[in-house]
Amino acid sequence: MSLILAKTYHLAGGIYDLMLSCLGNSRAAYEPIASNTASSSVIGAVRIVVQAANLDNIMGSKPSVIMRVQGRPETSTTVGKSKVPEQTLHSSYFLVYSLEEQIEFQVLKRYGFLDAGTAGKMMVSLKHLETEPTRMGREEGIFKSTNKGSKRKGSLLLDMFYYPILQVPTCSNTGIVTLRIGQAKGLLAEGTDIHSEKKHSKLMVVTRMDWTSQPIHKSHEAYDVDEPSWNCSFDFLCFDKSSTTIVMKIVSKRWNGTHVEYGHVSLALNELVQADRDELGWWPLSGFPNGRLQVTADWKPIELHQDNIYKE
User: Fold this and answer.
1) Which segments constitute the C2 domain (predicted)?
2) Contact 58, 110 (CB under 8 A)
3) pTM, 2 dp
4) Are 291 and 247 contained in the same domain?
5) 288-309 pLDDT, tens per residue?
């Protein structure tokens, strides 16, 4: 079974699910969570388990639950699997930048594959996790606003676990990675018409966790094809540093919508994290003899063991 439970893509109200899935028969080694928040402020990760979703006076519905940190676009979704009670047992992870943040839960009525509207919402603060990092079996009410005020529509049964970044040296293989992408150089072959290339190229860096997974991050486009600069960063939660590979491809988006790969860098995460910073993070770019890509990574360990993660 997959290490991560019931991860799916979900379209809800036009909001694209940025929480990428870890699906398949093998044990996943990571949970990528793209973030545009200032990476230096990440303080930990939170895991939320929806044990059950119960709706009052609604027959035949298997509710789905959309979770997000308030103010962030990324979401995670779970779907009910039985009728009495609506058991879901779904585990989702979010990066934490402040314990003042709140988790927003939106519960949808669901019949078969169809969502039939919002049954209710609720907010749960992360503040209590500072003194109580493990909260299990908490029932929280679902409410819907009406012209006559707020009306209870059911409840969610939740577990919450907070994993702060460890401030002392540790051998933990689980942690949060901050990946920084600087610039590239040496992309043009000898004799290339640089003016023609600049006219037709928009360069971005697409990052994956391996060769076949969906991208966890796409940089903005750069127009300087000779030495493009992105200077971007993002964070992700990694379950197994020793078995994780980072694959970064420089892709050119042409005027006609086609994409051309300029080259790629494939690195073991351990190698990237332990790299000598005196080299300023320059790595050879496969496909170009003189090509280089500037990438650095910081490792922030947390105490989260794979054996403690819920499995289906």
Assistant:
1) 152-283
2) no
3) 0.76
4) yes
5) 788 899 999 999 999 876 545 4
